[in-house]
Amino acid sequence: MGRTVAVIWHVSFSIVAAGLYFFFVLPRWPELTGETSPTLGLILRIVTGVLIGLAALPVVFTLQRTKRPELATPELALRLRTASISLHVAAAVLIVGAAISEIWLSLDSFGPWLFGIYGAAAAIALLGIFGFYLAFVAELPPPPPKPVKTREKTERRGRKKAVTEEAAEAEEAAETEPAAEAEATEAEDEKSEPESDEADEPAEEAADEKSAGTSLRNKRPSSKSGTKRRGWRSRGEVTAED
Asked: How far apart, in whole angstroms, are the C-alpha atoms of residue 198 and residue 32?
């Protein structure tokens, strides 16, 4: 059985069973208002359970078709179909069993229990229906893996950024080193200038003292020599006169 036929079969049986369930199982308004007889309601409740059970047949045929190893069906899809079959059968058994038990059980005393069984059967049937369609979703192939080239590109971009950052840091270091050296040399020059000034001051004072001493010494001999020369001249004049 193909997928399209199985889906149409399952959908049609499920819709008819849902309609009968609403009108003749819960809340069964036509029967409670007296529009239909209890016997007709009982028969339609049994028919509802049978329809839910027959809705499991397309699930069975789909499971047999997809079990073949050459199809390589995912294990999850097979498990969902198996669970859907069991849920359909369980819901059908509960509805048919509760409907038949109404022949001997009165709704006045056992009504809440019977309605609870009908509600549980409806929930189980819904789980079976959704499981059948989720199996088709599980058969879908996984998304393709992301290409590795994008990762390589990002890694290359990261490396390029690291290289550029290192180059920028090296340039900044190269620019800051001469500035630091210039500042250091300026600081050393500023320190050496006052020391040289202080050293020059005593040297200048010593030079001034020496120059003053030499000037005094030069003056004294010049005076003595002048007197001597004058004496020799006077004596020469005297001898010449004599």
From this structure: 125
Mean per-residue pLDDT, 138-159: 70
- In the block, tokens 């409740």 appear at 45
Per-residue model confidence as pLDDT tens digits over 64-89: 999 888 888 899 999 999 999 999 99
Tokens for 36, please give them.
Answer: 């239909």
Which long-range CB contacts under 8 A does 137-144 form with residues at least 24 apart?
Answer: 138/74, 138/76, 138/77, 138/80, 139/66, 139/73, 139/74, 139/77
Number of structural domains in the chain: 2
How distant, in Å, are the alpha carbons of 10, 54, 178, 184, 188 from that of 181?
A: 89, 95, 5, 5, 10
- C-alpha to C-alpha distance for 130 and 138, rounded to whole angstroms: 12
Q: What's the sign of the alpha-carbon dihedral 34, 36, 38, 41?
A: negative
Q: Among residues 129, 117, 138, which one has the least CA distance to residue 83? A: 129
> Where does a domain end: 138, 164, 183?
138
